[in-house]
Amino acid sequence: MKGMVILLVALGHVVAREPPAGHAWWDTLRAAIYAFHMPAFLYLGGLVMAHTGGLRVGPGEAYRDYLGRRAVRLLVPFFALGLLVVAGKLALAPFLHVDNAPEDAGTALLGLLWDTSRSPSLTVWYVFVAFVYAAALPPLVRLSGGSVAPAVALALLLFALPVPPIAYLDRVAGYAVFFAAGLVAGTCLPAWLAVVDRHRGAFLLAFLASLGLVLMPGVPPDLRMLVAGLLSMPALHALARHPAVARQRIWAWLGAYAFVIYLLNTVTIGFTKAVMFEVFGTWDGANFFFFAPTLFAAGLLGPVLAKVVLFRRIPVLDRLTN
């Protein structure tokens, strides 16, 4: 399932802003992808955290050790990639096409760390938000006697609140409900998987129907994401567990490289796009049918190549991108 979702992440990043001339349909495709792909990722994070015992971390030294490991795993890549993107965009903007180019270093750093609606590296938000959940949930669950019910209630409240885009708090609030759904699934995984497998067809049909909200004018994006995001969880999980899908090793292969693809896909797509603009001049019209698959492949395979050729030779980079 992680392999399926990371494929959609790369596809959604092929066009960062306005679609090329003659391809307004891309906005509809992107809206459909964005309605569920990150909720599905958060669901997986919550499920794994609950199922592997991450919620049962004890207080004191055990919690501090756990928090330190989570910081190395998540915050170090967050800051490293964010600063790399800022430096790269500032350096290349005078010479090549750069999506969402910052005005200057100060504005870029302010956007990366505080005024995050203007972040020059907005895709790193997931890594930061995952750390916030990892840090906050063990104490919350411990205080509630091991129950995830208060976490679910808090997540629903946060989803309903208007939270400003300061230090990614809007993302923390807006996506907590999907992480909480994963927690619930992870705490009763055998029973949940039985339901997922038994009602696979119904879940898939309901999820596909929910994507029709993308085509309906006037539907708030948050409501669209709530419905499609929640329905994507059993649907994609059921699809991933279907024997005909599960035996296709491409999904496990993509899943194994999901973190490095997530971290670097916008970098490899952006660089490839800049070079292609220099060569072809425009991606409007028929040119987009060459740009789109090339950029998509760059987003998936570029990070894998960096991992295999470079990062595995440098132990610290290898650990941070696993």
Low-confidence stretches: none
DSSP E strands, number: 0
Number of helices: 16
Assembly context of the chains:
single chain
**Rg on CA atoms, Å:** 20 Å
Mean pLDDT: 94
Please estimate the helix content: over 70%
What is the H/E string?
A: HHHHHHHHHHHHHHHH
Termini gap: 17 Å
**In percent, how much strand structure appears in the residues?**
under 5%
Helix/strand/pairing category: mainly alpha
Largest beta-sheet details: none
**What would you call the shape?**
globular
How would you portray this structure in words?
The protein has 322 residues and is mainly α. The chain has a domain at 51-184. It has 16 helices and no strands.
Question: Could you write a compact summary of the structure shown?
Answer:
This protein is mostly helical and 322 residues long. 72% of the residues lie in helices and 0% in strands.
Jot down its keywords.
322 residues; mainly alpha; 0% strand
Describe how the helices and strands are arranged.
Blueprint: H1 2-12, H2 25-34, H3 37-51, H4 61-92, H5 105-113, H6 125-143, H7 149-160, H8 169-187, H9 189-198, H10 200-210, H11 221-241, H12 243-246, H13 249-256, H14 258-280, H15 288-309, H16 315-320
Helix pairs in contact: 1-2, 1-3, 1-13, 1-14, 1-15, 3-8, 3-11, 4-5, 4-6, 6-8, 7-8, 8-11, 10-11, 14-15
